[in-house]
Design a protein that fits this description.
Elements (H helix, E strand, L loop, with lengths): L1 E11 L2 E10 L2 E5 L8 E4 L3 E5 L1 E6 L12 H10 L2 E6 L10 H14 L3 E4 L1 E2 L12 H4 L6 E2 L8 H13 L3 E4 L12 E2 L2 H5 L4 E2 L2 H17 L2 E4 L5 H13 L3 E5 L1 H5 L20 H13 L4 E2 L8 H4 L2 H4 L10 H10 L6 H16 L14 E11 L18 E11 L2 E5 L2
Parallel strand pairs: 1-4, 1-5, 6-7, 7-8, 9-10, 11-14, 12-13, 14-15, 15-16
Antiparallel strand pairs: 1-2, 2-3, 5-17, 17-18, 18-19
Helix pairs in contact: 4-6, 6-7, 7-9
Length: 420
Amino acid sequence: MRYVIKNATVLTENGFVKTDLHIDNGIVVSIGDCDFSNAEVFDFNNCHIFPGFADVHVHLREPGFSYKETIASGTRACARGGYTDVCSMPNLNPVPDNAENLQQQLDIIKRDALIGVHPYGALTIGEKGERLSDIASMADAAVGFSDDGRGVQDDNMMEEAMLLVKEMGKIIAAHCEVNELLFGGYIRDGIYSREHGHRGIPPESEWKMVERDLKLAEKTGCKYHICHVSTKESVALIAAAKKRGVDVTAETAPHYLILTENDLQEHGRFKMNPPLGSLEDRQALIDAVLDGTIDMIATDHAPHSAEEKGKGLEKSMMGVVGIETAFALMYTHFVRNGKMSLRHLVKLLCDNPRTRFGLGNGVIKVGEKADFTVFNLEESYHVNPDEFLSMGRSTPFEGEQVWGRCKLTFADGNLVWREV
């Protein structure tokens, strides 16, 4: 099939250029001088074309929890959000803690995925933190290793894991949380928790493990990535570690950059782990995203059933969805108002995660497979979970007006999303 995309502003190796793209048999065959004959033509005046986004932290829930999400539904949602590669977390059933278990997920990915899905292997057996997984057997197929949803509590075990993962040439993506500092909490310990009678999680639960792991990463030389950073103390620790030369990167999510505990409501769609922080936390995260201390935006897309999310702040499960709204939220809150350049946002969503996790070069050029997404930045809409392609519907941004609608996505040469 041949396609021509006309009049769009394309992010090329030379920057943003208003031009045409010609795709033939999944390959970009020309930029700027296109043959329109026998091609399906899209006139995308006022639209921008970006290399496909990459998210290193999504929950696709299959195998084991397909009532929440499937590889098929999740990757459709990813394509609609402009993503062409994602890394899937290992809190599944069976947990991918050996090659056989991981293969079950790989088989579903091969059968059902619309985009590139790169699974993590678990660091410990069953993600229980008691014995290391069969890391060596999974190293060829896993993008990295993580016990996401749980922090590895034992210092010696984490050091042993880092040494083995380093030997395999892989990366650890860590959920940083000290269990003994949770105190039965489920939102951040702060003004809202105290005024509304909720049990709070202190920020130390996150940053104390960040502090420990950074020391271990420095000692072992392991490639280390910190998931969903949410506290100002974590930011300071990461900045200091980078200055010392520690091989560390970090992510945060749109909800931590936009919302705080002041935005909490008595509904499960505001409950995630780590929880929303203070105004000071948010400002530290924004500064870190702008100055490079935090390297990338990840969504921590975590779908649950309506029943699981409909039990209020205390009893609902932790996790919100975000893969279909991430670009629009970041564009609306940071680019449209001049706080961040559009090019920097693409670095956070595409360049940096791809480079760190080896997910392809993320460029649009002649001779490469079509792997890009098209957004109309002037089109606004209100976030409506009923329209999501994800099976998850729980978002704290329900009803918010945003700018930037995805019109088209190609992944690995295939047209995987087009707005009807």
